[in-house]
Amino acid sequence: MTPMYADKNARDPETYAILGAAMTVHSELGRGFLEAVYQEALGLELQARSVPYEREKELPVYYRDQKLHTFYKADFVCYGSIIVELKALSELSAKEEAQVINYLKVSGLNRALLINFGAPRLQYKRFVFNLRSSAQSADEPDRRE
Fold first, then answer.
1. Domain spans, the chain
2. From start to end of 4-141, where are the E strands?
3. Please, are residues 67 and 74 in contact by the beta-carbon 8 Å criterion?
4. Biggest alpha carbon distance in the chain?
């Protein structure tokens, strides 16, 4: 029987590939480095695994349809659709989670990973944003005829 954990990851092979790369980096480097070290190492590991990514991707912020001069910068956007935010903290908090949620809001993307290399074991949280719009479309009457 296949473990439930592997089964969950099989449904999202892109997230699984990113987390596998992060686990390799954490296994190799351990904890204690600056975030920039993990970012560079993860970029090399993603490249070695042929995971497409953009590093330090700018995410514009709009207010009333007007683009602000201020923008967010995601550590990575992988596969063109998954925000990956890295941390090197002893413990994640609600502050880091709020940051990732804001990245999802401004980017229009709906998946993100918050990965922390600062703990003894790699920590990560997966975010899926805006599922409600899918549910609303199911509530609308079928207009095909």
1. 10-138
2. 53-63, 66-78, 82-87, 111-116, 123-128
3. no
4. 61
